[in-house]
Design a protein that fits this description.
- With about 325 residues, the protein is an all-alpha fold.
- Helices cover about 70% and strands about 0% of the residues.
- Helix 1 packs antiparallel against helix 16.
């Protein structure tokens, strides 16, 4: 078990190193610091002195990989790769192009993103699994037919429509919840009810159809017929045996998504004014803050790889045979 986890962690670390190298190439070789300076200063007709000053103020004036003007070890250490790329592995994100402490911003915004992501994730998994099992329980009936039709409808509608319609109906017309904003403590519940509900509704269509297909495949297997021959009711067969044996596919589609939810729903946080990691990323993209974008790309990759490692570990807990692979 320990060796299996170590192998998975090492694989994830290699992937993260590759992502970091690719990000460095894209941000510093393809999109050079001179390009960053022109974009931030404004326009292509910018003087060389203005570009040099902008780069010096933000530490972008050093060579990429090798500093010929430095002495000794500083030939390698006084480079953009060592100063801007390697510290990310120690979660040292430095300052943004506008002078803000990125690490401080991430710590302040992690809680709002988690407050939105965690209930959306947990309640979403519960609702989708239960709805899918009910569809299978009433298979070949009008309940299944209209449930599938409704799921297809939900799948066909853009998530942006749910946000706009939800804000208009529940905030503008009914005035039940605020249209946007965020508060600390228990007051945050009022601001999170609508985005959490919309987050669950927007993912219900596709995932309900996926789980329904998976459960229908399971009920045709021999162990289900054996359970029925023993006199077990259909509800017991579905909620105990079928659900238990379908645990691995459920883990595949849920655990790996959790880090992405923690990064924040980009559109959801922006529309509802939630000061989380998602809105932080959107603001950085709109403001051409490349340091923040680079840090968020690295953090998102690290969290996604962590999710994959957690998925592999959960596999071994659900089915010990997996660790032999």
């Amino acid at each position: 078990m320990v060796n299996y986890i170590i192998r998975r962690v090492l694989y994830g670390l290699l992937i993260l190193i590759g992502v970091n190298l690719l990000t460095f190439i894209l941000f510093f070789a393809v999109n050079t610091p001179d390009d960053m300076a022109r974009i931030n200063i404004g326009g292509k007709r910018v003087s060389a002195d203005a570009i040099a000053k902008w780069k010096t103020q933000r530490g972008y004036d050093k060579p990429l990989l090798f500093n010929e003007q430095a002495q000794g070890v500083e030939k390698l250490s006084k480079t953009l790769f060592v100063e801007r790329s390697l510290p990310l592995f120690a979660l040292q994100f430095g300052a943004s192009d506008t002078g803000r402490d990125i690490g401080y911003e991430l710590r302040q915004r992690a809680l709002p993103s988690l407050a939105l992501a965690l209930p959306t994730f947990l309640l979403g998994v519960f609702v989708v699994v239960v709805v899918s099992l009910i569809m299978v329980f009433f298979r070949n009936t009008y309940v299944e037919f209209w449930s599938v039709a409704f799921a297809v409808f939900l799948l066909s509608v853009s998530g942006l429509f749910y946000i706009i319609a939800g804000q208009f109906l529940f905030s503008t017309v009914l005035k039940l919840v605020p249209a946007s904003g965020f508060a600390g403590g228990l007051d945050m519940v009022v601001f999170l009810v609508l985005p959490v509900a919309i987050g669950i509704l927007s993912r219900m269509g596709g995932e309900a159809l996926f789980y329904r297909t998976m459960f229908l495949e399971e009920i045709g297997k021999d162990y289900v017929r054996t359970a029925r021959s023993k006199g077990l009711s259909e509800s017991v067969v579905l909620f105990r045996h079928v659900l238990g044996n379908a645990l691995l596919p459920i883990l595949t589609s849920t655990v790996a998504v959790l880090p992405l939810l923690f990064m924040g729903a980009l559109i959801m946080e922006s529309f509802f004014g939630i000061p989380g990691l998602g809105s932080f990323t959107i603001d950085a993209i709109n403001g051409q803050d490349f340091a923040v974008v680079r840090a968020m790309v690295f953090l998102g990759s690290a969290l996604y790889i962590l999710g994959l490692v957690l998925t592999d570990i959960s596999y071994t807990l659900a089915d010990p045979r997996v660790r032999l692979a």
